[in-house]
Protein backbone atom coordinates (compact mmCIF):
# COMPACT_ATOMS: atom_id res chain seq x y z
CA UNK A 1 0.00 0.00 0.00
CA UNK A 2 2.77 2.49 0.79
CA UNK A 3 4.25 2.64 -2.68
CA UNK A 4 1.05 3.05 -4.72
CA UNK A 5 1.21 6.85 -5.09
CA UNK A 6 4.79 6.80 -6.38
CA UNK A 7 3.98 4.01 -8.85
CA UNK A 8 1.03 5.99 -10.19
CA UNK A 9 2.99 9.20 -10.52
CA UNK A 10 5.86 7.47 -12.30
CA UNK A 11 3.39 5.90 -14.77
CA UNK A 12 1.90 9.34 -15.43
CA UNK A 13 5.36 10.81 -15.83
CA UNK A 14 6.17 8.25 -18.53
CA UNK A 15 3.47 9.54 -20.88
CA UNK A 16 4.67 13.14 -21.16
CA UNK A 17 8.25 11.90 -21.60
CA UNK A 18 7.25 9.61 -24.46
CA UNK A 19 5.27 12.45 -25.98
CA UNK A 20 8.20 14.83 -25.58
CA UNK A 21 10.55 12.33 -27.17
CA UNK A 22 8.20 11.93 -30.15
CA UNK A 23 7.85 15.70 -30.41
CA UNK A 24 11.61 16.18 -30.24
CA UNK A 25 12.06 13.69 -33.10
CA UNK A 26 9.39 15.44 -35.18
CA UNK A 27 10.97 18.83 -34.49
CA UNK A 28 14.44 17.56 -35.41
CA UNK A 29 13.01 16.36 -38.73
CA UNK A 30 11.34 19.75 -39.33
CA UNK A 31 14.54 21.60 -38.52
CA UNK A 32 16.53 19.33 -40.84
CA UNK A 33 14.04 20.03 -43.65
CA UNK A 34 14.11 23.77 -42.95
CA UNK A 35 17.91 23.79 -43.08
CA UNK A 36 17.73 22.97 -46.81
CA UNK A 37 15.95 26.00 -48.30
CA UNK A 38 13.55 25.54 -51.21
CA UNK A 39 15.02 25.84 -54.68
CA UNK A 40 13.45 27.52 -57.69
CA UNK A 41 13.62 26.59 -61.36
CA UNK A 42 15.85 28.82 -63.44
CA UNK A 43 14.28 31.42 -65.76
CA UNK A 44 16.31 32.77 -68.66
CA UNK A 45 15.66 36.43 -69.43
CA UNK A 46 15.86 37.69 -73.00
CA UNK A 47 14.71 41.34 -72.95
CA UNK A 48 13.66 41.22 -76.63
CA UNK A 49 11.27 38.34 -76.04
CA UNK A 50 9.54 39.68 -72.93
CA UNK A 51 6.00 41.01 -73.05
CA UNK A 52 5.85 44.73 -72.21
CA UNK A 53 4.25 45.43 -68.83
CA UNK A 54 3.83 48.72 -66.94
CA UNK A 55 6.86 50.95 -66.33
CA UNK A 56 8.86 50.19 -63.20
CA UNK A 57 7.53 51.99 -60.12
CA UNK A 58 10.92 52.03 -58.38
CA UNK A 59 13.10 54.99 -59.36
CA UNK A 60 16.35 54.27 -61.20
CA UNK A 61 18.78 56.33 -63.24
CA UNK A 62 19.87 55.63 -66.80
CA UNK A 63 22.60 58.01 -67.92
CA UNK A 64 21.28 61.42 -66.85
CA UNK A 65 17.62 60.44 -66.76
CA UNK A 66 15.66 59.24 -63.72
CA UNK A 67 12.85 56.84 -64.63
CA UNK A 68 10.09 56.46 -62.09
CA UNK A 69 6.72 54.85 -62.84
CA UNK A 70 6.30 56.46 -66.24
CA UNK A 71 7.78 59.87 -65.39
CA UNK A 72 11.23 60.82 -66.65
CA UNK A 73 13.41 63.48 -65.07
CA UNK A 74 16.51 64.82 -66.76
CA UNK A 75 19.33 65.75 -64.37
CA UNK A 76 21.82 68.48 -65.25
CA UNK A 77 25.46 67.45 -64.79
CA UNK A 78 27.66 64.44 -65.33
CA UNK A 79 28.04 60.97 -63.76
CA UNK A 80 24.59 61.12 -62.18
CA UNK A 81 23.97 58.76 -59.27
CA UNK A 82 20.55 58.40 -57.69
CA UNK A 83 21.05 58.07 -53.93
CA UNK A 84 17.36 57.71 -53.12
CA UNK A 85 14.22 59.69 -52.45
CA UNK A 86 13.55 62.20 -49.68
CA UNK A 87 10.37 62.08 -47.55
CA UNK A 88 9.07 65.08 -49.57
CA UNK A 89 9.31 63.06 -52.81
CA UNK A 90 12.38 64.81 -54.21
CA UNK A 91 15.19 62.64 -55.54
CA UNK A 92 18.58 62.98 -53.91
CA UNK A 93 21.33 62.76 -56.52
CA UNK A 94 25.09 62.84 -56.55
CA UNK A 95 26.20 64.70 -59.64
CA UNK A 96 29.39 66.15 -61.10
CA UNK A 97 28.71 69.81 -61.80
CA UNK A 98 30.90 72.95 -61.99
CA UNK A 99 34.02 70.77 -61.60
CA UNK A 100 32.97 69.29 -58.29
CA UNK A 101 30.74 66.62 -56.83
CA UNK A 102 27.48 67.91 -55.38
CA UNK A 103 24.53 66.34 -53.61
CA UNK A 104 21.35 67.89 -54.99
CA UNK A 105 17.60 67.61 -54.43
CA UNK A 106 15.94 67.03 -57.79
CA UNK A 107 12.24 67.72 -58.21
CA UNK A 108 10.53 65.05 -60.36
CA UNK A 109 10.27 66.50 -63.88
CA UNK A 110 11.55 69.83 -62.50
CA UNK A 111 14.56 71.76 -61.29
CA UNK A 112 17.16 70.90 -58.65
CA UNK A 113 18.62 72.58 -55.56
CA UNK A 114 22.01 72.09 -53.98
CA UNK A 115 22.09 70.26 -50.63
CA UNK A 116 25.88 69.87 -50.32
CA UNK A 117 28.34 71.79 -52.45
CA UNK A 118 31.59 69.88 -52.43
CA UNK A 119 31.63 66.22 -51.47
CA UNK A 120 34.04 63.34 -52.01
CA UNK A 121 33.28 61.33 -55.14
CA UNK A 122 31.12 58.32 -55.83
CA UNK A 123 31.22 55.44 -53.35
CA UNK A 124 31.40 57.46 -50.18
CA UNK A 125 28.02 59.17 -50.24
CA UNK A 126 24.92 57.42 -48.93
CA UNK A 127 21.33 58.51 -48.39
CA UNK A 128 19.83 56.54 -45.51
CA UNK A 129 16.89 54.26 -46.27
CA UNK A 130 14.31 56.64 -44.77
CA UNK A 131 15.57 59.51 -46.95
CA UNK A 132 16.29 61.94 -44.09
CA UNK A 133 20.06 61.73 -43.75
CA UNK A 134 23.04 62.00 -46.10
CA UNK A 135 26.35 60.48 -44.97
CA UNK A 136 29.66 61.28 -46.63
CA UNK A 137 32.93 59.49 -46.02
CA UNK A 138 36.28 61.04 -46.89
CA UNK A 139 39.18 58.63 -46.82
CA UNK A 140 42.72 59.96 -46.44
CA UNK A 141 45.87 57.85 -46.58
CA UNK A 142 48.12 60.50 -44.99
CA UNK A 143 49.37 61.09 -42.37
CA UNK A 144 47.70 57.85 -41.22
CA UNK A 145 44.93 56.02 -43.05
CA UNK A 146 41.67 57.41 -41.69
CA UNK A 147 38.11 58.23 -42.69
CA UNK A 148 36.11 61.29 -41.76
CA UNK A 149 32.37 60.56 -41.70
CA UNK A 150 29.88 63.42 -41.78
CA UNK A 151 26.10 63.16 -41.42
CA UNK A 152 23.78 65.85 -42.80
CA UNK A 153 20.06 66.55 -42.79
CA UNK A 154 18.99 65.80 -46.39
CA UNK A 155 16.50 68.70 -46.47
CA UNK A 156 18.35 71.56 -44.78
CA UNK A 157 21.91 70.39 -45.42
CA UNK A 158 22.66 71.01 -41.72
CA UNK A 159 25.61 69.04 -40.31
CA UNK A 160 24.34 66.52 -37.73
CA UNK A 161 27.67 65.03 -36.65
CA UNK A 162 31.20 64.05 -37.58
CA UNK A 163 33.26 61.01 -36.66
CA UNK A 164 36.87 60.23 -37.54
CA UNK A 165 38.36 56.77 -37.20
CA UNK A 166 41.41 54.91 -38.47
CA UNK A 167 41.21 52.90 -41.67
CA UNK A 168 38.54 52.84 -44.34
CA UNK A 169 34.94 53.19 -43.12
CA UNK A 170 31.96 52.35 -45.29
CA UNK A 171 28.60 53.98 -44.38
CA UNK A 172 25.79 51.41 -44.79
CA UNK A 173 22.58 53.11 -43.67
CA UNK A 174 21.33 56.05 -41.64
CA UNK A 175 18.25 57.71 -40.22
CA UNK A 176 17.90 61.01 -38.39
CA UNK A 177 19.34 59.58 -35.17
CA UNK A 178 21.76 56.79 -36.16
CA UNK A 179 24.44 56.05 -38.75
CA UNK A 180 25.50 52.43 -39.30
CA UNK A 181 28.97 52.03 -40.78
CA UNK A 182 31.46 49.23 -41.35
CA UNK A 183 35.20 49.35 -40.80
CA UNK A 184 37.20 47.52 -43.47
CA UNK A 185 37.89 44.40 -41.37
CA UNK A 186 35.03 44.94 -38.92
CA UNK A 187 33.47 45.99 -36.68
CA UNK A 188 30.03 47.28 -37.67
CA UNK A 189 29.19 50.32 -35.56
CA UNK A 190 25.92 52.12 -34.81
CA UNK A 191 26.88 55.76 -34.31
CA UNK A 192 24.36 57.73 -32.24
CA UNK A 193 24.24 61.26 -33.66
CA UNK A 194 22.73 62.88 -30.55
CA UNK A 195 25.31 61.57 -28.05
CA UNK A 196 28.20 61.16 -30.49
CA UNK A 197 28.88 57.67 -29.17
CA UNK A 198 29.30 54.44 -31.13
CA UNK A 199 28.04 50.98 -30.24
CA UNK A 200 29.60 47.87 -31.76
CA UNK A 201 26.91 45.85 -33.53
CA UNK A 202 29.10 43.08 -34.98
CA UNK A 203 32.81 42.39 -35.11
CA UNK A 204 32.51 41.12 -38.71
CA UNK A 205 32.81 43.08 -41.95
CA UNK A 206 29.35 44.47 -42.71
CA UNK A 207 28.34 45.23 -46.29
CA UNK A 208 24.55 45.85 -46.13
CA UNK A 209 22.35 47.21 -43.38
CA UNK A 210 18.74 48.32 -43.09
CA UNK A 211 17.80 50.26 -39.95
CA UNK A 212 14.09 50.38 -40.76
CA UNK A 213 13.72 46.62 -41.19
CA UNK A 214 16.40 45.54 -38.69
CA UNK A 215 18.67 43.72 -41.14
CA UNK A 216 22.45 43.29 -41.21
CA UNK A 217 24.55 41.46 -43.81
CA UNK A 218 28.18 40.63 -43.08
CA UNK A 219 31.05 38.57 -44.45
CA UNK A 220 32.44 36.25 -41.78
CA UNK A 221 35.89 37.02 -43.25
CA UNK A 222 37.38 38.02 -46.61
CA UNK A 223 35.31 36.14 -49.23
CA UNK A 224 38.49 35.47 -51.24
CA UNK A 225 39.79 33.58 -48.21
CA UNK A 226 36.70 31.46 -47.65
CA UNK A 227 34.49 34.06 -45.96
CA UNK A 228 30.72 33.51 -46.03
CA UNK A 229 27.64 35.75 -46.05
CA UNK A 230 25.59 36.00 -42.88
CA UNK A 231 22.20 37.73 -42.67
CA UNK A 232 21.03 38.65 -39.17
CA UNK A 233 19.04 41.15 -37.19
CA UNK A 234 20.82 44.51 -36.92
CA UNK A 235 19.59 44.92 -33.35
CA UNK A 236 21.09 41.54 -32.42
CA UNK A 237 23.69 40.12 -34.81
CA UNK A 238 23.63 36.77 -32.98
CA UNK A 239 20.10 36.23 -34.34
CA UNK A 240 21.19 34.74 -37.69
CA UNK A 241 18.44 34.44 -40.33
CA UNK A 242 20.44 32.86 -43.16
CA UNK A 243 24.02 32.07 -44.10
CA UNK A 244 25.64 31.20 -47.41
CA UNK A 245 29.17 30.49 -48.53
CA UNK A 246 28.17 30.72 -52.22
CA UNK A 247 26.19 33.95 -52.47
CA UNK A 248 26.44 37.64 -51.60
CA UNK A 249 23.47 39.95 -51.01
CA UNK A 250 23.01 42.67 -53.64
CA UNK A 251 19.74 44.14 -52.33
CA UNK A 252 17.25 43.83 -49.47
CA UNK A 253 13.54 44.27 -50.25
CA UNK A 254 11.83 47.44 -48.94
CA UNK A 255 10.05 45.45 -46.20
CA UNK A 256 13.10 43.37 -45.26
CA UNK A 257 11.41 40.09 -46.25
CA UNK A 258 13.45 39.14 -49.34
CA UNK A 259 17.03 39.24 -50.62
CA UNK A 260 18.52 39.53 -54.07
CA UNK A 261 21.75 37.53 -54.21
CA UNK A 262 24.57 36.86 -56.68
CA UNK A 263 27.60 34.56 -56.76
CA UNK A 264 29.87 35.52 -53.86
CA UNK A 265 32.90 36.42 -55.94
CA UNK A 266 31.17 37.96 -58.96
CA UNK A 267 32.94 41.11 -60.04
CA UNK A 268 33.86 42.69 -63.37
CA UNK A 269 30.97 43.12 -65.79
CA UNK A 270 28.17 41.96 -63.59
CA UNK A 271 26.79 38.49 -62.86
CA UNK A 272 24.83 36.41 -65.35
CA UNK A 273 22.72 34.73 -62.65
CA UNK A 274 20.77 36.13 -59.70
CA UNK A 275 18.66 34.54 -56.96
CA UNK A 276 15.69 35.92 -55.07
CA UNK A 277 15.32 34.43 -51.59
CA UNK A 278 13.28 34.96 -48.50
CA UNK A 279 15.35 36.39 -45.68
CA UNK A 280 15.55 32.83 -44.28
CA UNK A 281 17.07 31.64 -47.56
CA UNK A 282 14.19 29.91 -49.39
CA UNK A 283 14.71 30.55 -53.11
CA UNK A 284 11.63 32.10 -54.76
CA UNK A 285 13.25 32.83 -58.12
CA UNK A 286 16.44 32.20 -60.09
CA UNK A 287 17.18 34.25 -63.20
CA UNK A 288 19.85 33.95 -65.87
CA UNK A 289 20.81 36.05 -68.87
CA UNK A 290 23.02 35.33 -71.87
CA UNK A 291 25.10 38.40 -71.04
CA UNK A 292 25.03 40.17 -67.69
CA UNK A 293 22.78 41.96 -65.23
CA UNK A 294 23.54 45.66 -64.64
CA UNK A 295 20.73 46.58 -62.20
CA UNK A 296 19.36 44.93 -59.08
CA UNK A 297 16.29 46.55 -57.53
CA UNK A 298 13.26 45.51 -55.57
CA UNK A 299 9.98 47.01 -56.74
CA UNK A 300 8.12 45.72 -53.68
CA UNK A 301 8.50 43.02 -51.02
CA UNK A 302 9.15 40.17 -53.43
CA UNK A 303 9.17 41.59 -56.98
CA UNK A 304 12.58 42.38 -58.49
CA UNK A 305 13.66 44.64 -61.32
CA UNK A 306 16.69 43.28 -63.17
CA UNK A 307 18.59 45.25 -65.79
CA UNK A 308 19.38 42.52 -68.34
CA UNK A 309 21.98 43.08 -71.08
CA UNK A 310 22.51 40.78 -74.07
CA UNK A 311 24.33 41.17 -77.37
CA UNK A 312 21.13 42.38 -79.04
CA UNK A 313 19.36 44.49 -76.41
CA UNK A 314 19.07 45.71 -72.85
CA UNK A 315 15.96 46.22 -70.76
CA UNK A 316 14.57 46.19 -67.26
CA UNK A 317 12.80 42.93 -66.44
CA UNK A 318 10.15 42.76 -63.70
CA UNK A 319 10.22 39.28 -62.19
CA UNK A 320 8.15 37.55 -59.54
CA UNK A 321 8.33 33.81 -58.74
CA UNK A 322 9.82 32.92 -62.13
CA UNK A 323 7.52 35.05 -64.31
CA UNK A 324 9.04 38.09 -66.04
CA UNK A 325 7.85 40.98 -68.15
CA UNK A 326 9.52 44.09 -69.56
CA UNK A 327 9.25 47.19 -67.33
CA UNK A 328 11.12 49.66 -69.56
CA UNK A 329 11.70 50.40 -73.23
CA UNK A 330 14.40 48.33 -74.92
CA UNK A 331 17.87 49.85 -75.26
CA UNK A 332 20.91 48.91 -77.28
CA UNK A 333 22.76 45.71 -76.44
CA UNK A 334 26.50 45.14 -76.22
CA UNK A 335 27.64 43.64 -79.58
CA UNK A 336 31.00 42.53 -78.13
CA UNK A 337 29.32 40.06 -75.74
Layout: helices, strands, pairs:
Elements lengths: L3 H31 L7 E3 L15 E3 L2 E4 L2 E4 L3 E8 L5 E7 L2 E7 L5 E5 L8 E3 L5 E8 L5 E8 L5 E8 L2 E6 L3 E6 L4 E5 L5 E5 L2 E6 L4 E5 L9 E4 L7 E5 L2 E6 L5 E6 L9 E6 L4 E6 L3 E7 L5 E6 L3 E8 L2 E4 L4 E2 L5
Task: Explain this structure.
The chain has 337 residues and is mostly beta strands. It is built from one helix and 29 strands. The strands form seven sheets. Strands 1-24-23-22-21 form a five-stranded mixed sheet, with no helix packed on it. The longest helix is centred in the first third of the chain and has 31 residues. It is globular, with a radius of gyration of 24 Å. The termini are far apart. The N terminus is likely disordered.
Amino acid sequence: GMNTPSRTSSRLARTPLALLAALATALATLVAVAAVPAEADSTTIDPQRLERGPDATAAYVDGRTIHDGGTTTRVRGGSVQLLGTRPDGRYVVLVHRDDRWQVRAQKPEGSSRKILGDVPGSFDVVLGGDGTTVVTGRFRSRPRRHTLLRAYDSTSGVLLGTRQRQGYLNPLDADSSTVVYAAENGPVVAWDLASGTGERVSRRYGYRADLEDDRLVVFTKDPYEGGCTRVSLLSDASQVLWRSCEEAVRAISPDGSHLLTVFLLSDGLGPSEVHVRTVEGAETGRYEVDGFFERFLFEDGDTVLLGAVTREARGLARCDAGDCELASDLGRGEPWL
